[in-house]
TrEMBL record:
<dbReference type="InterPro" id="IPR001638">
    <property type="entry name" value="Solute-binding_3/MltF_N"/>
</dbReference>
<keyword id="KW-0732">Signal</keyword>
<feature type="signal peptide">
    <location>
        <begin position="1"/>
        <end position="27"/>
    </location>
</feature>
<protein>
    <submittedName>
        <fullName>ABC transporter substrate-binding protein</fullName>
    </submittedName>
</protein>
<feature type="domain" description="Solute-binding protein family 3/N-terminal">
    <location>
        <begin position="62"/>
        <end position="293"/>
    </location>
</feature>
<dbReference type="Pfam" id="PF00497">
    <property type="entry name" value="SBP_bac_3"/>
</dbReference>
Length: 305
């Protein structure tokens, strides 16, 4: 069972990338791969959970995760401009400790994540990925967070965009390859048929925000938690607001695994269940001001979108 009580406001946190940086520079940073600091294997690992791991990962002692670190509050660069932090990273460091694994994080372009997973350069994609039926055809999800979609508009919401219908006939920016781009394209065949949305897909969510700030887009469309984070962060204060009162089109999200890695998938699922039971999971979500997105049941491939 899922619980959802998404709040309409969010604590302002400084964005690692400010709106003063050009979209070109941001896109270039996104495309560069880099390593973030991991954690040492925990001496208090859970032996039962560790026994569930595939032999090669257990022997290596490392869990290799891939992410795109321009999607706060789920993953973003810390003040050192190198270490990847955020909700997903905090959860996976806790998961790694329970499994007795060092967590090794590779930051790469969003569109490089699935090829890296397919090529086994990483073990799991941890990048606030929405669980969808289309993705389930090739990959497995462990759904550990409930979210929805959000609309970022200029301060004052000059075009009165408050929901999907308000996007019809507008210019809307979103992250390339994201669920949000797919949703916008679906809207053009349904709610917005005959009054299509002009969709601009960009390399990072920060690029989409810059499109709105410059007037080249009427709105950006992203995960609700991301939209609220960006609008409330120092770079967005006074420039943006959220058009929707409540998250639109609720969805579940979580880490992605190849179908062949069912053993690792199940070990991660069992570990998240333990973290929920002992309170660690809720504590981590609350620390990131995302407690309202908590799930009470961890599902595999529970997405219905």
């Amino acid at each position: 069972m899922l619980s959802m009580k998404m709040r309409g406001t969010r604590k302002a946190i400084v964005l690692g990338v400010t709106l003063a940086v050009s979209a070109t520079l941001l896109a270039g940073c996104s495309a560069e791969a880099g390593k973030a600091a991991g954690t040492d294997p925990s001496p208090t690992a859970d032996s039962t959970l560790r026994a569930m791991l595939p032999a090669d990962i257990k022997e290596a002692g490392v869990l290799k995760i891939g992410t795109e670190a321009f999607y706060p509050p789920f993953e973003y660069l810390d003040a050192d401009n190198s270490t990847v932090v955020g909700l997903d990273m905090a959860l996976f460091h806790a998961i790694g400790a329970e499994l007795g694994l060092k967590v090794d994080v590779t930051n790469m372009a969003f569109d490089g994540l699935l090829p890296a997973l397919d090529a086994k350069r990483i073990d799991v994609v941890v990048a606030a990925m929405t669980d969808t039926k289309a993705r389930q055809a090739k990959y497995d999800f462990v759904d550990y967070f409930l979210t929805g979609q959000g609309i970022v508009v200029p301060a004052g919401n000059p075009k009165a965009i408050t929901g999907v219908e308000g996007l019809c006939g507008r210019k809307v920016a979103a992250l390339e390859g994201s669920t949000q781009v797919s949703l916008l394209e679906k809207f053009n065949t349904a709610e917005c048929a005959g009054n299509a949305i002009t969709v601009t897909a960009l390399a990072t969510d920060a690029d989409a925000m810059l499109q709105v700030h410059s007037g080249r887009a009427d709105a950006s469309f992203s995960q609700d938690a991301v939209a609220r984070y960006n609008a409330a962060a120092d770079g967005g204060k006074g420039k943006f607001e959220i058009g929707n009162d409540q998250p639109l089109l609720p969805v579940v999200m979580g880490p992605m695994f190849t179908k062949e890695d069912a053993g690792l998938r199940d070990a991660v699922k069992a570990t998240v269940e333990k973290l929920i039971a002992d309170g660690t999971y809720q504590s981590i979500l609350d620390k990131h001001d995302l407690g309202s997105g908590a799930v009470t049941e961890v599902m595999v491939n529970g997405g219905t979108l």
